[in-house]
Specification:
146 residues, Nuclear Transport Factor 2, Chain: A, 4-stranded antiparallel β-sheet
Length: 146
């Protein structure tokens, strides 16, 4: 059976709501950036969800970030592996996903990663994902290239 692919740059939920997770109207984002914005929004939702919060998807989301900080530096590789597993499983628009830690200053109290992947169809895209000690996650598109 052939894999179904969507040509819409937004998710169905974003299309129905006519806005992204941060309230930005779809029409306010240039067409060339909509897919990256949509993927970043989904990553943000997924990384700000705690594992077990969705009974029908118990492995969706991240474990408690405070536990990851408590177990540093040993838990850094564990978080990297968890991010890779989540994105591979729950963001079907991406393939060939790679995660690499980014250097941060010790006094910043945050962990940052670059997530790079291919959007199905060929485009390469990168995001910076940062986690702070309060558990809040930020996901920002870095670049998209063909």
């Amino acid at each position: 059976m052939a894999e179904a692919r969507s040509n819409l740059p937004e998710s169905l939920f974003e299309k129905l709501a006519d806005q992204y997770a941060d309230g930005t109207a779809i029409s306010a984002v240039p067409m060339a950036y909509r897919r990256a914005k949509s993927i970043a929004d989904h990553l943000w939702r997924m990384f700000n969800t705690r594992q077990g919060a969705l009974p029908h998807l118990p492995d969706y989301g991240l474990p408690d970030i405070s536990e990851i900080y408590r177990k540093l530096p040993a838990s850094l590789k564990e978080l990297e592996t968890t991010l890779l597993t989540l994105v591979t499983k729950y963001e079907p628009r991406l393939e060939r996903v790679r995660i690499r830690p980014l250097a941060t200053m010790p006094n910043e109290f945050r962990l940052s990663f670059e997530l790079s992947a291919s959007v199905k169809g060929g485009e390469r895209i990168s995001f910076q994902t940062s986690f702070n000690t309060s558990g809040e996650t930020h996901v920002q598109p870095l670049k998209a290239r063909t």
